Amino acid sequence: MANRIVTRTHRASIRNQRQVCDGLDELGFAAAKLWNVARWTAGRVWDSCGQIPDDSVLKSYLKSHERYADLNAQSSQATLEELAEAFKSWYGHRNNGNQKANPPGYRKNGDEHPRSTVTFKEDGFKHDEKNGYIRLSKGRNTKAHWSDFILCAYEADPDVEIENVQQVRAVFEHGEWRLHIVCKHDIEVESPGNSVAGVDLGICNVAAVSFGDESLLYPGGALKEDEYYFAKKRAECDSSTSREARRLDQKCTDRRTHFLHVLSKAIVAECVERSVGTIVVGDLASIREDDETGEARNWGDHGNLDLHGWAFDRFETMLEYKGEAEGIEVEPVSERDTSKSCSVCSRCDDSQRVERGLYICDECGLVANADTNGAENIRQKVLPNPRREDRDNGWMAQPAVHLFDRREGTFVPREQEPNREP
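Request: output the structure for the sequence above.
Response:
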């Protein structure tokens, strides 16, 4: 048994909603206005020199702007950091050939500014753990007097302990303000065992997991169905910025996030059951870059669009903190050549991956599911003596497939999936 510090975000309702909603509305509007000022500034810089200013430049340039003082200084900084990150993501899409990617837009709903999320860092809030209150700071321009603040009475889930608060976000969702409270918890965990699992992330099969003597496949068909459905519904909207279009975008994002949460939870549960103490994940940070030139890699029109929508970094984060709570270490390793190499004899050849889902080794005769072979190669990267040519590898050719059950919101073996056609 060992102690470990983990970071968790807890959602809490606000019990005195009527008393604080006007003050939070004012801060939400202020955050939207600051975003728009920074967006206009970044657009001017882009038009003049083709570069996007990073958050440090925006902070320095806008520090004296009147909108900056509408929020607590750290809250204003968080808004500018969010905008800079959105521009960075858009610029990355452009570099990778996705010309349909749109830059972050202005935050407006007709002539109204929406209620933007407001982030309060350590200097922007005070937590009264005993009485269940969080005091949120206002900006200099929004204070009625020097000691003016917003006092929120919060209520979290009964089994959640709000302690060691690191950050608070005021989020307007479903017609009311809520608090997202980021806490650090000191928990006792015990590693399930010493076994190692390898995880290969993909697009058709979102994840393939190898345990060394068996493997699991998690297809991404449910995600594809959602993308097709919401794209079709979105095309029926009057405009891409209409309220209905934004609602559909948010719902699609929420369903994708739920899918990834359920998937990461399912993988960790399977690892606990098999006494896995280490999960090795292929590091996809450089997948958009060519190994030799370092420039954007072209995966074709369809492949590029799939890649841009692939939230592998978010999934890795989910897998890491869910594994952490169970005493499992999650270790990223390079994916280089794992899709080309034979996991039995190490022969590396592009031609051995004869189809999207089939891998045949000309050297040793291995026939395997291509994603399972890649997951096993990833697993072997941390093993001291990984190569065993005489082992039974039938499990690599026929991995167990787990499908997403929409009705239950869980992954189940293919034969138990109720919506599967015979």
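Residues 195-416 form one domain.
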